[in-house]
Amino acid sequence: MKNVILLLSSLLLFLCSTEMVAQKLSKDVKASNINTVDAVGNKINLNKLLKSNEKVLICFFRPVWCAICNKRTHELIERYDELKKKGIEVIAVYPSNQETMAQYVKDAKIPFTVISDPEEVIYKKYAVERSKEKLAATPKAEGFKAEYEEGQKLFAGKSYAKKTEKYDAIINADFLIGTKRVLEVGYYGEYIGDHYSLDKL
Q1: Domains of the chain (ranges plus CATH)?
Q2: Looking at residue 183, what DSSP letter applies?
Q3: Is the four-CA dihedral 143, 173, 61, 129 of positive or negative sign?
Q4: Separation between Cα atoms, residue 79 and residue 194, nearest integer Å
Q5: pTM strictly above 0.85
Q6: Which of 134, 138, 174, 194 pairs as cysteine with 189 (C-beta 3.0–4.6 A)?
Protein backbone atom coordinates (compact mmCIF):
# COMPACT_ATOMS: atom_id res chain seq x y z
CA MET A 1 0.00 0.00 0.00
CA LYS A 2 2.84 2.36 0.90
CA ASN A 3 4.44 1.64 -2.46
CA VAL A 4 1.21 2.52 -4.27
CA ILE A 5 0.89 5.80 -2.38
CA LEU A 6 4.53 6.61 -3.10
CA LEU A 7 4.04 5.85 -6.79
CA LEU A 8 0.93 8.03 -6.99
CA SER A 9 2.69 10.86 -5.17
CA SER A 10 5.64 10.67 -7.55
CA LEU A 11 3.30 10.68 -10.55
CA LEU A 12 1.46 13.71 -9.20
CA LEU A 13 4.71 15.58 -8.65
CA PHE A 14 5.82 14.71 -12.17
CA LEU A 15 2.57 15.94 -13.69
CA CYS A 16 2.72 19.15 -11.69
CA SER A 17 6.32 19.80 -12.69
CA THR A 18 5.51 19.10 -16.33
CA GLU A 19 2.66 21.58 -16.19
CA MET A 20 4.93 24.19 -14.65
CA VAL A 21 7.47 23.77 -17.44
CA ALA A 22 4.72 24.10 -20.06
CA GLN A 23 3.19 27.19 -18.44
CA LYS A 24 3.58 30.30 -20.57
CA LEU A 25 5.87 33.01 -19.26
CA SER A 26 4.19 36.25 -18.30
CA LYS A 27 5.37 39.82 -17.88
CA ASP A 28 7.54 40.66 -14.87
CA VAL A 29 8.75 37.09 -14.22
CA LYS A 30 12.48 36.40 -14.19
CA ALA A 31 13.42 34.66 -17.43
CA SER A 32 15.84 31.74 -17.56
CA ASN A 33 19.45 32.51 -18.32
CA ILE A 34 20.86 31.31 -21.63
CA ASN A 35 24.41 30.02 -21.47
CA THR A 36 25.43 28.24 -24.65
CA VAL A 37 27.37 28.49 -27.92
CA ASP A 38 25.89 30.17 -30.98
CA ALA A 39 25.72 28.78 -34.51
CA VAL A 40 29.22 29.96 -35.38
CA GLY A 41 30.90 28.86 -32.15
CA ASN A 42 30.81 31.99 -29.99
CA LYS A 43 29.96 31.68 -26.29
CA ILE A 44 26.64 33.30 -25.47
CA ASN A 45 25.42 34.29 -22.01
CA LEU A 46 22.20 36.25 -21.56
CA ASN A 47 23.39 37.83 -18.29
CA LYS A 48 26.51 39.19 -19.99
CA LEU A 49 24.51 40.53 -22.95
CA LEU A 50 22.28 42.43 -20.53
CA LYS A 51 25.33 44.10 -19.02
CA SER A 52 26.25 45.65 -22.36
CA ASN A 53 22.70 46.20 -23.67
CA GLU A 54 19.58 47.67 -22.07
CA LYS A 55 17.41 44.82 -23.32
CA VAL A 56 17.57 41.57 -25.30
CA LEU A 57 14.91 40.44 -27.75
CA ILE A 58 14.78 36.64 -28.00
CA CYS A 59 12.91 35.29 -31.02
CA PHE A 60 12.03 31.63 -31.36
CA PHE A 61 11.61 30.22 -34.85
CA ARG A 62 10.67 27.04 -36.64
CA PRO A 63 13.36 25.29 -38.73
CA VAL A 64 15.46 27.25 -41.19
CA TRP A 65 13.48 25.96 -44.20
CA CYS A 66 10.37 27.83 -42.99
CA ALA A 67 9.75 30.67 -45.47
CA ILE A 68 7.57 32.61 -43.04
CA CYS A 69 10.39 32.50 -40.46
CA ASN A 70 12.84 33.62 -43.13
CA LYS A 71 10.67 36.67 -43.77
CA ARG A 72 10.77 37.63 -40.08
CA THR A 73 14.51 36.98 -39.88
CA HIS A 74 15.10 39.41 -42.72
CA GLU A 75 12.90 41.97 -41.00
CA LEU A 76 15.20 41.67 -37.98
CA ILE A 77 18.27 41.99 -40.22
CA GLU A 78 16.88 45.12 -41.89
CA ARG A 79 15.96 46.76 -38.57
CA TYR A 80 18.87 45.53 -36.47
CA ASP A 81 20.70 48.87 -36.48
CA GLU A 82 17.48 50.58 -35.42
CA LEU A 83 17.03 48.12 -32.56
CA LYS A 84 20.65 48.55 -31.44
CA LYS A 85 20.16 52.31 -31.26
CA LYS A 86 17.31 51.62 -28.85
CA GLY A 87 19.67 49.52 -26.73
CA ILE A 88 18.17 46.19 -27.83
CA GLU A 89 20.30 43.17 -28.76
CA VAL A 90 18.75 40.27 -30.67
CA ILE A 91 18.99 36.51 -30.21
CA ALA A 92 17.32 34.21 -32.73
CA VAL A 93 16.77 30.58 -31.73
CA TYR A 94 16.11 27.81 -34.25
CA PRO A 95 15.65 24.04 -33.84
CA SER A 96 17.77 23.27 -36.92
CA ASN A 97 21.22 21.72 -36.40
CA GLN A 98 24.30 23.87 -35.91
CA GLU A 99 25.88 23.11 -39.28
CA THR A 100 22.72 24.17 -41.13
CA MET A 101 22.36 27.29 -39.01
CA ALA A 102 25.98 28.29 -39.56
CA GLN A 103 25.37 28.12 -43.31
CA TYR A 104 22.16 30.14 -42.98
CA VAL A 105 23.95 32.83 -40.97
CA LYS A 106 26.54 33.07 -43.72
CA ASP A 107 24.02 33.00 -46.59
CA ALA A 108 21.71 35.61 -45.08
CA LYS A 109 24.55 37.69 -43.56
CA ILE A 110 22.85 37.74 -40.19
CA PRO A 111 24.47 40.35 -37.88
CA PHE A 112 22.95 39.17 -34.59
CA THR A 113 23.29 36.04 -32.48
CA VAL A 114 21.76 32.84 -33.87
CA ILE A 115 21.46 29.74 -31.68
CA SER A 116 20.89 26.17 -32.83
CA ASP A 117 18.73 24.25 -30.35
CA PRO A 118 17.74 20.90 -31.94
CA GLU A 119 17.03 19.33 -28.55
CA GLU A 120 14.74 22.28 -27.74
CA VAL A 121 16.38 22.90 -24.37
CA ILE A 122 15.87 26.68 -24.57
CA TYR A 123 12.44 26.25 -26.20
CA LYS A 124 11.31 24.33 -23.12
CA LYS A 125 12.74 26.91 -20.72
CA TYR A 126 10.64 29.57 -22.41
CA ALA A 127 7.59 27.30 -22.82
CA VAL A 128 7.48 27.76 -26.59
CA GLU A 129 4.33 26.12 -27.89
CA ARG A 130 3.68 23.18 -30.13
CA SER A 131 0.15 23.39 -31.49
CA LYS A 132 -1.44 21.45 -34.32
CA GLU A 133 -4.48 23.72 -34.06
CA LYS A 134 -2.41 26.89 -34.56
CA LEU A 135 -0.47 25.18 -37.34
CA ALA A 136 -3.76 24.36 -39.11
CA ALA A 137 -4.99 27.94 -38.63
CA THR A 138 -1.94 29.46 -40.32
CA PRO A 139 -3.06 29.31 -43.99
CA LYS A 140 -6.21 31.24 -43.02
CA ALA A 141 -4.26 34.08 -41.42
CA GLU A 142 -4.46 37.47 -43.13
CA GLY A 143 -1.53 38.06 -45.46
CA PHE A 144 -0.16 34.53 -45.10
CA LYS A 145 0.29 33.90 -48.83
CA ALA A 146 2.12 37.17 -49.42
CA GLU A 147 4.36 36.60 -46.38
CA TYR A 148 5.17 33.08 -47.54
CA GLU A 149 5.99 34.17 -51.08
CA GLU A 150 8.20 37.01 -49.82
CA GLY A 151 10.00 34.62 -47.49
CA GLN A 152 10.68 32.25 -50.38
CA LYS A 153 12.12 35.08 -52.48
CA LEU A 154 14.36 36.16 -49.61
CA PHE A 155 16.05 32.75 -49.62
CA ALA A 156 17.65 34.10 -52.82
CA GLY A 157 17.97 30.67 -54.39
CA LYS A 158 19.38 29.00 -51.26
CA SER A 159 17.64 25.86 -50.04
CA TYR A 160 17.70 24.03 -46.73
CA ALA A 161 16.47 20.46 -46.65
CA LYS A 162 13.44 19.52 -44.57
CA LYS A 163 14.91 16.43 -42.95
CA THR A 164 12.20 15.80 -40.38
CA GLU A 165 8.65 16.77 -39.46
CA LYS A 166 9.62 16.74 -35.79
CA TYR A 167 9.41 20.53 -35.52
CA ASP A 168 6.35 21.19 -37.69
CA ALA A 169 4.03 22.14 -34.82
CA ILE A 170 6.37 24.73 -33.25
CA ILE A 171 4.71 28.14 -33.06
CA ASN A 172 6.83 31.30 -33.02
CA ALA A 173 7.33 33.28 -29.81
CA ASP A 174 9.12 36.51 -28.85
CA PHE A 175 10.46 37.69 -25.50
CA LEU A 176 11.84 41.08 -24.54
CA ILE A 177 14.16 40.75 -21.55
CA GLY A 178 15.15 43.76 -19.45
CA THR A 179 17.32 44.49 -16.42
CA LYS A 180 17.99 41.54 -14.09
CA ARG A 181 16.44 39.23 -16.71
CA VAL A 182 12.94 40.50 -15.97
CA LEU A 183 10.52 39.72 -18.78
CA GLU A 184 8.98 42.88 -20.26
CA VAL A 185 7.18 41.15 -23.15
CA GLY A 186 6.20 37.51 -23.54
CA TYR A 187 4.47 37.02 -26.88
CA TYR A 188 3.18 33.64 -28.07
CA GLY A 189 1.97 33.62 -31.66
CA GLU A 190 -1.54 32.54 -32.63
CA TYR A 191 -0.26 31.05 -35.89
CA ILE A 192 3.01 30.63 -37.78
CA GLY A 193 4.43 34.04 -38.53
CA ASP A 194 2.54 35.83 -35.78
CA HIS A 195 5.30 37.82 -34.07
CA TYR A 196 5.45 40.74 -31.70
CA SER A 197 5.57 43.97 -33.70
CA LEU A 198 9.03 45.56 -33.79
CA ASP A 199 7.28 48.94 -33.95
CA LYS A 200 6.17 48.43 -30.33
CA LEU A 201 9.70 48.00 -29.00
Answers
A1: 24-200 (3.40.30.10)
A2: E
A3: negative
A4: 18
A5: yes
A6: 194
Q: 1-29: string of b/e by CB count within 10 Å (b at 16+)?
A: eeeeeeeeeeeeeeeeeeeeeeeebeeee
| Range from 12-21, 45-54, 76-85, 130-139 carrying the lowest mean pLDDT | 12-21
Dihedral, CA of residue 14, residue 18, residue 21 and residue 26, to nearest 10: -110
The pLDDT value given to residue 22:
59
In this predicted model, what pLDDT tens digit does every residue of 108-136 receive, in sequence order? 999 999 999 999 999 999 999 999 999 99
DSSP states of 36-52 as a string?
Answer: EE-TTS-EEEHHHHHHH
pLDDT computed for residue 55 by the predictor: 98
List Cα–Cα distances, 152 to 96, 115, 181, 188, 193, in angstroms: 18, 22, 35, 24, 14
Cα dihedral 20, 177, 117, 49, rounded to 10, equals -140
Helix (H) / strand (E) containing 162: none
